[in-house]
UniProtKB/TrEMBL annotation:
It comes from the Eukaryota. This is Uncharacterized protein.
Length: 296
């Protein structure tokens, strides 16, 4: 018969000691302080510090953290990795004076408004799927799940799986290396070279650079961020507007790399929404033409 090993009085169990070192502990807060105030030699040789918070305890979060660690080590970039648990979660204020340039949220997006509050003082917040991506792939994931669980409850589910199986060969990284990434960059480059000015809200929200991306809506995020920087360099508002036709209306996607700009304010005025650095809304062609009359 197995017996539980008796702990000696006054001796802390390894598990309890580990819990005190993890999550929002003094050690974790000291690590944040140390990375945010590096020695001059470290800061000069490796650049600014990036932050990665991974979901604990999940395998997806742990493996994502490992990938982030290996990536930054190979490029000799400074990275602080910390576990994020709902048991004792970090507070937004813990990172406010850290001087982090980028934050990765691995396998989670945090409590309500957590990512939004971080974005007020960390220029870039990255997660695996943002809201627009999630909406775009939701139906595809449901169909894949329907087949994996052998439920076959969705309309034309078997036909969908047959068509999808024909695409699997394209996922071979040996026979089809980086073709998708190359095509995206080439297409984005062609579009970015043809920007034009728009008066946001007929000038109420200032001017910025825009492009038409009909047939290339999947590139809207990358193009918008690059366009935001070019717009700022041209003396306009640091916003990039990517416009394409969708269901008979123009969809306008706004992106900015400036964390003092709130693009959602513009989007909400036209019935849309989003985050300060990433938002979208629908617009009638006649209204958009009024925005571009500055070019005529």
């Amino acid at each position: 018969m197995l017996r539980r090993r008796r702990l000696l009085a006054g001796v802390t169990s390894p598990a309890a000691a580990e819990l005190r070192r993890a999550f929002r502990s003094e050690a974790a807060l000291e690590a944040i302080h140390a990375h945010s105030h590096p020695s001059k030699d470290a800061a000069d040789s490796e650049g600014p510090t990036h932050l990665a918070l991974y979901h604990y305890p999940t395998f997806a979060g742990a493996y994502a953290a490992l990938a982030a660690h290996l990536f930054h080590r190979r490029l000799r970039r400074r990275l602080l990795l910390l576990p994020f648990s709902s048991v004792e979660p970090f507070r937004v204020g813990d990172f406010e004076d850290g001087g982090f340039q980028k934050c990765y949220l691995l396998d989670f997006i945090g409590p309500k408004n957590f990512a939004l509050e971080l974005s007020r003082f960390i220029p870039r917040i990255c997660n695996l799927l943002d809201q627009e991506d999630e909406e775009r792939v939701f139906n595809v994931l449901k169909y894949i799940e329907d087949a994996d669980l052998r439920q076959w409850q969705l309309p034309n589910s078997k036909e969908f799986q047959t068509a999808l199986s024909d695409e699997r060969a394209k996922l071979n990284c040996i026979t089809n290396p980086l073709s998708l990434a190359r095509d995206r960059l080439e297409a984005a480059g062609r579009l970015i070279d043809r920007p034009f000015k728009v008066q946001l809200g007929r000038g109420l929200y200032g001017e910025c650079l825009a492009i038409r991306a009909d047939g290339n809506s999947k590139l809207s995020h990358e193009i918008g961020l690059e366009l935001s920087q070019r717009s700022a360099a041209a003396g306009l508002r640091p916003i990039g507007a990517v416009v394409f036709m969708q269901r008979g209306l123009l969809k306008v996607c706004l992106r900015t790399t400036d964390n003092t700009i709130d693009t959602a304010e513009i989007a909400k005025a036209y019935g849309g929404g989003g985050k300060p650095n990433s938002s979208s809304f629908a617009l009638r062609l006649e209204e958009f033409n009024a925005w571009t009359s500055v070019n005529s």
